[in-house]
Design goal:
The complex is a heterodimer of chains A (289) and B (253).
Chain A (H helix, E strand, L loop, with lengths): L1 H40 L2 H6 L3 E2 L6 E2 L2 H32 L2 H16 L2 H20 L7 H26 L2 H9 L4 H12 L1 H17 L2 H6 L17 H8 L8 H33 L1
Helix pairs in contact in A: 1-12, 3-6, 3-9, 4-6, 5-6, 6-9, 7-8, 9-12, 11-12
Chain B lengths: L5 E12 L2 E12 L3 E5 L6 H7 L10 E9 L2 E2 L7 H7 E4 L10 H11 L7 H11 L3 H4 L12 H14 L4 E5 L7 H14 L4 E5 L3 H7 L2 E6 L2 E7 H6 L4 H7 L5
Parallel strand pairs in B: 3-8, 3-9, 6-7, 7-8
Antiparallel strand pairs in B: 1-2, 1-4, 4-5, 9-10
Classes of the chains: A mainly alpha (289), B alpha/beta (253).
The structure holds adenosine-5'-triphosphate and magnesium ion.
Amino acid sequence: MFSLKEKAIKLIFACLAFSCLLFLLAIVAALFLESYPLFLKVNIFKFIFGKSWYPTFDPPEFGILPLISGTFLVSVGALFICIPLGIGSALYIHELAPEKSRKILKPLVEFLGAVPSIVFGFFALTIVAPFIAKTFNLPTGLCALTASLVLGIMAIPTITSISEDALSFVPNSFREASYALGANKFQTMFSIIVPAASSGILTSIILATGRIVGETMTVLMASGQAAVIAKSFFSPVRPMTATIASEMGEAASGSLHYHSLFAIALILFLITLAFNILAEKINQKYTKK
Amino acid sequence: MDDNKIKIEAKNINFYYGQMQILKNLSVNFYENQVTAFIGPSGCGKSTFIRLLNKMNELAPNSSVSGEIYLDGENILDKKTNAVKIRRKVGMVFQKPNPFSKTIFQNISYGLQLCKTPKKLIPEIVEESLKHAALWNEVKDRLHKSALELSGGQQQRLCIARCLAIKPEVILFDEPCASLDPISTSKIEELVLKLKKYYTIAIVTHNMQQAARVSDQTAFMYLGELIEFSPTKEMFVVPKEKKTQEYLSGRFG
Ligand SMILES: Nc1ncnc2c1ncn2[C@@H]1O[C@H](COP(=O)(O)OP(=O)(O)OP(=O)(O)O)[C@@H](O)[C@H]1O
Ligand SMILES: [Mg+2]
């Protein structure tokens, strides 16, 4: 009787845990089912590598390369911002800061992570975009650079908090050993601590990338919404997420346009899934040792 | 033993963590090419004391120290004394083997790179240090494998090699065998005896036999005070202080 009760409890928790898997499967199924009709009409290679996205023209064109390139450009730009800032602040907070600044900085970074993305969107619209337009003398500040900047800032907390965890797992004995050999703070930090925490830092970058690629609201507001392959960071772009969000409302349910948006979502899902699996793999590889 | 040459002279050391006094007016001499053992019950301040000798105390926040420690005439405790310089002269081996998560080779070359040793010379010094630490034969075929794959005893000898590589004059051992099996322990003890020809050595240990076997001088500490400091042979045969006698006979600790 005792073990029966135990079994029941275990079963309940197993169900709870596996429900995650169920949701994931349901999402994948929905994406597949809804994007499948598109691929009956449009070749998947043409879809991914096609250079023009004119879903409402006659005949429509469903080439998402401009959207992929928009996502790519904005993401790379954002990484250039969040990697140095994120890792730099993690190092400062964990290795260099005096107790007092640490106590202020840590919650601040966490708070930055809790700011809703729509707020970042407003920040982009009202502050960053006008600033960029003025500084670089552009007709509009809503461009890849603005989106990158704001996305980069948004992703800092992800990198900082995960990197900081990684730093805190580096045993103190490494620091002592390094100092005892006559290393100074910076030599210890860059030659011993950072390499020892590298898997965690790498994981933080990958998860941040996933977040950047999947972020919607901010890029919708900040990127300028031009579905063409961008020539530079100053061109307006239209990342995949922004496309889905802005066109879903106007695409008639069941139309090819509608299915093509699901297909974009499917590809986006696969990309972020790949990033997460990669992060998991890296973590496993290093924690085994 | 009048011909003992003093390498390090610690005078009237007081050490505090916050308000709490950990070391009370300690004075100890370390003689060149001798092994000085520190014994005493847990928490009496042995580690705290020897960490003063290579300025590791400066890493502990909220601590303060008074007194003087002369190493070849230079006051280690002086704020102006360069910590890096002192740490190159006074190496340290810790209680738990703490090799870096790098290769065996890199564990040793790291310290060499820090003191700007020409690249050409590094392999040679690595080999030499590993030989000195009695580890070469066991690792010569896997220098470029991770140091974490070594056994605990091998790791500790690697840490010793790492310390020897930068050619210190003094080596501090803080319970170097605490986490090792008897065979590894005796290897380390042999090593300590061999090394004292070239270095001045301080060793903290909880193992009385070990202190008796490897040391020339023994310092017995109790609650932050130095109770007795005498040649090991004398202390273990006829302790001068009653406290020492009680401790050595295992009546407390
Ligand atoms: N960072 C610290 N902050 C406050 N007190 C400390 C700190 N480190 C050590 N102490 C205290 O200082 C005293 C001496 O510690 P120490 O490590 O020197 O003892 P020990 O003789 O080496 O002991 P053991 O044989 O267990 O290693 C202890 O009472 C300890 O609690
Ligand atoms: Mg100790």
